[in-house]
Amino acid sequence: MSITGVNHVTLAVLDLDRSVIFYTDLLGARLRARWPDGAYLTLGDLWLCLELTVHMSPREDDSHLALSAAPGSFDPLARRIRSETRIWKENRSEGASVYFLDPDGHRLELHNGTLASRLAHYRCHPVDGMEIFGDTGTERS
Questions:
Q1: Were both Cys, which of 21, 100, 106, 108 would link to 85 (CB 3.0–4.6 Å)?
Q2: 74 and 130 share one domain
Q3: GO terms for molecular function, please (predicted)?
């Protein structure tokens, strides 16, 4: 038995109209279904559910949802995100990233990289105590 992927992500929102507009107009999501208390959207292969709530519980940690852009569209989308959203963190990791908030304060990241590129970075720039597991077994740094 094993997990084959992420089935869907659900985000609680205070204003469904505002959130649908944010995800469709800014991030290019496709609206797939809508009802009085929610909506289903797709962002590439990601199934996103927006669910209306009356109370939000803001997070203060680094939990976030990282999204990828289509080839060639990272830079224009990143510029638009920077001009139309609040930035919550500056990028300090491998690969280009923009860390931004949706209208309800959900922490999002637009990242231009893959797990393979991140692991390659750490193979070249080891971090004390990090162990990288790969096809050839384990590598300790």
A1: 100
A2: yes
A3: transferase activity
pLDDT tens per residue, range 108-137: 999 998 888 888 888 998 889 999 987 544
In terms of domains, do 76 and 135 share one? yes
| Chain centre distance of CA 76 | 17
**What's the pLDDT tens digit per position in 63-101?**
999 999 988 999 999 999 999 999 999 998 888 999 999
In terms of domains, do 88 and 39 share one?
A: no
CB atoms closer than 10 angstroms to residue 24: 15
Task: Please count the CA atoms within 13 angstroms of the CA of 121 that sit on its side-chain side.
Answer: 11
Statement to judge: residues 81 and 130 lie in one domain: yes
**Do 58 and 105 form a contact (C-beta atoms < 8 A)?**
yes
Can you tell me whether residue 58 is helix, strand or coil? coil
Query: How is residue 81 written in tokens?
Result: 């995100």
Distances (CA, A) of 36 to 28, 66, 105: 22, 27, 21
Q: How many Cα atoms within 13 Å fall on the side-chain side of residue 69? A: 22
